[in-house]
Each structure stands twice: as structure tokens, then as C-alpha cells.
Amino acid sequence: QVQLVESGGGLVQPGGSLRLSCAASGSIFSINRMGWYRQAPGKQRELVGARTYGGSTNYADSVKGRFTISRDNAKNTVYLQMNNLKPEDTAVYYCNAFIMDQVRISREYWGRGTQVTVSS
């Protein structure tokens, strides 16, 4: 069984920073892509950014230059460093990963989400 557990959300003022973490655990053989999505009230879930095992990254246009995704492959952990946060970044942030388990079955997994609120 595989789990993704996020941490690091909270309340921050506009212009501030937060770092989210997501650790994958369980019966893991390999992890391809790990990344982050977010969902604001009344809106669809959208991709924030993702990083492959090899280091390729992609970001939503709205966060380019402000957010950075990094990974520690040895710890099966992905991070989202968010700088210069804006009120429109307020959302529940979900960790996402494509994981092959020990019986070589690949699935997409989601974390339970962590709230990020940007407000003065």
C-alpha cells in the first residue's frame, strides 16, 4: 500500500513564502513523476507543477518564477517552495505521484491535501 502525506500548509501574508513537503511511503519500487495540484473554492483542480525522476520540470504559467519544485529521490519526497505568494494562490494543494509498486503495477496516487491561505 502506498501513501502520500503532505505537510507545510498554513496562513501567510501576501508576498510571503511557504514550503510544502510530500513524502511517499509504502510498497514502492519506483516513482516517476511527482508534483503538485491545487484547487481553489469553486474552481477545478489545476496543475501547479511537476518533476520527473530525471529532473525535468514543468510549471503552470501563473506560478513560473515564484514556485520551485524539488525532489529528494532517496527519501521519495517532493517539495514545493512558494515565494511571493498572492491571494490568488489560496487553495488546497494536493501532492500527486505516479508510482510503481513492488509487484510492478503503476498507479497514480494523491495526497489528502493541505490548505494554503494567502491573506493580510
Describe the structure.
The structure is a single chain. The chain is elongated. The strands form 2 sheets. Strands 2, 4, 5, 6, 9, 10 and 11 form a 7-stranded mixed β-sheet that branches. The protein has no helices and 11 strands. With 120 residues, it is mainly β. It has strands at 2-7, 10-12, 18-26, 28-39, 46-51, 57-59, 67-72, 77-82, 91-101, 106-110, 114-118.
What's the topology here?
Blueprint: E1 2-7, E2 10-12, E3 18-26, E4 28-39, E5 46-51, E6 57-59, E7 67-72, E8 77-82, E9 91-101, E10 106-110, E11 114-118
Overall helicity: under 10%
Number of helices: 0
First-last Cα distance: 40 Å
Total beta-strand segments: 11
Largest sheet: 7 strands, mixed
The SSE string, one letter per element, is EEEEEEEEEEE
Helix/strand class: mainly beta
Average pLDDT, rounded to a whole number, is 96
Beta-strand residue fraction: over 45%
* Shape, principal axes of CA atoms: elongated
Q: Point out poorly predicted stretches.
A: none
- Cα-atom Rg, whole angstroms? 14 Å
